[in-house]
């Protein structure tokens, strides 16, 4: 058993025995944008790391199909956990935005409440693809701008909204992914948005 | 954090763990909570025994995968074995089943309440 997925020591904090409902929120963003930092700042456990393997048979058509023979690609992701009450537990996933990851979206993240697109203003191009894919999967999302210390450009949220061609109904929020309260505020912004959407949807029934 | 993907290290291991099977039970969501209904017994495959130990308290599928260091698909196969023999029960998420539909506002209100109280 030499190839352990995670080198973290295994001192687990078990869930409440009454826990019955697991929920998912996904944080998507480019490399180094602070996904793991955000997950860590709000999680009740040290973020864990796991992976899914993607084979030709499991994924349909992708770039690996061109390669002859058995092809397996691994997609790794981090996650943390928040016990909301005795019965409900929220899992927060930090997901890489790269192309191959989206082939696994349905298998891993169907039924997710929603997503946070974490944006670094120095590399905004990385966010385009994630936003496009979330819209394609019809997953509700908010955009959180991680303001790094050396974020000298200081684009306003309005400027970033324009740069990303974000529709007006998508909430945007500034954050510091290292700060727990700030991370909480991002999640609350997302769930508030989902709640408003659900109320509007129920009103039409 | 530098890590070595399990499949590049030893693909044969995954084959051995699952007895050559590659089709997983898709009903196990990442956040389905698994609870053991009995302890490990002598002669049981070590991965099965490990899962039963872990799930003395409710444990999400994704946490099981992280703890035992195996990909999600492999864990789903192993959980299928344990479910078939009645050694575990599964508490499936009640949130929206289809990708595009929202959960109801009452559930979201509970989530908001939980987040605000953190």
UniProtKB/TrEMBL annotation, chain A:
One GO MF term attached to the UniProt entry: hydrolase activity
Entry keywords, A to Z: ATP-binding, GTP-binding, Hydrolase, Nucleotide-binding
Keyword Hydrolase: yes
Gene3D superfamilies membership: P-loop containing nucleotide triphosphate hydrolases
InterPro entries cross-referenced by the UniProt entry: Gliding_Motility_GTPase, Gpn, P-loop_NTPase
Source species, domain of life: Bacteria
A Pfam family that the UniProt record links to this protein: ATP_bind_1
Family: Belongs to the GPN-loop GTPase family.
Protein name stated in the entry: ATP-binding protein
UniProtKB/TrEMBL annotation, chain B:
Alphabetized Pfam families for the sequence: DUF742
Family matches, as PANTHER family: DUF742 DOMAIN-CONTAINING PROTEIN (PTHR36221:SF1)
Name of this protein: DUF742 domain-containing protein
Organism in which the protein naturally occurs: Streptomyces calvus
Organism placement in taxonomy: Bacteria, Bacillati, Actinomycetota, Actinomycetes, Kitasatosporales
């Amino acid at each position: 058993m030499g190839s352990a997925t995670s080198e973290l020591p295994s001192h687990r904090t078990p869930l409440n025995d009454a826990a019955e409902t697991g929920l998912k929120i996904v944080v998507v963003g480019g490399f180094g944008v602070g996904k793991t930092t955000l997950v860590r700042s709000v999680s009740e456990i040290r973020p864990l790391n796991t992976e899914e393997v993607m084979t030709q048979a499991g994924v349909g058509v992708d770039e690996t199909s061109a390669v002859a023979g058995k092809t397996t690609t691994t997609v790794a992701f981090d996650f943390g956990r928040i016990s909301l009450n005795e019965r409900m537990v929220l899992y927060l996933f930090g997901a890489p935005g790269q192309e191959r990851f989206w082939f696994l979206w349905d298998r891993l993240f169907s039924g997710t409440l929603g997503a946070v697109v974490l944006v670094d203003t120095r590399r905004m191009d990385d966010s385009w693809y994630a936003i496009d894919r979330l819209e394609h999967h019809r997953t509700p999302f908010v955009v959180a701008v991680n303001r790094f210390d050396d974020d000298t450009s200081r684009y306003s949220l309005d400027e970033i909204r324009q740069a990303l061609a974000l529709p007006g109904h998508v909430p945007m929020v500034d954050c510091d992914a290292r700060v727990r309260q700030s991370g909480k505020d991002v999640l609350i912004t997302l769930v508030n948005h989902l709640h408003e959407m659900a109320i509007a949807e129920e009103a039409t029934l | 954090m530098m890590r070595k993907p399990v499949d590049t290290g030893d693909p044969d291991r995954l084959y051995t763990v699952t007895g050559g099977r590659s089709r997983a039970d898709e009903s196990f969501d990442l956040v389905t909570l698994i609870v053991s209904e009995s302890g490990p017994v002598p002669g049981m495959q070590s991965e099965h025994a490990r899962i039963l130990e872990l799930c003395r308290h409710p444990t999400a599928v994704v946490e099981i995968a992280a703890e035992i260091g195996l990909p999600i698909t492999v864990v789903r196969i192993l959980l299928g074995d344990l479910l078939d023999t009645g050694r575990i029960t599964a508490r499936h998420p009640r949130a929206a089943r289809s990708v595009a539909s929202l959960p109801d506002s009452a559930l979201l209100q509970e989530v908001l309440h939980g987040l605000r109280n953190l």
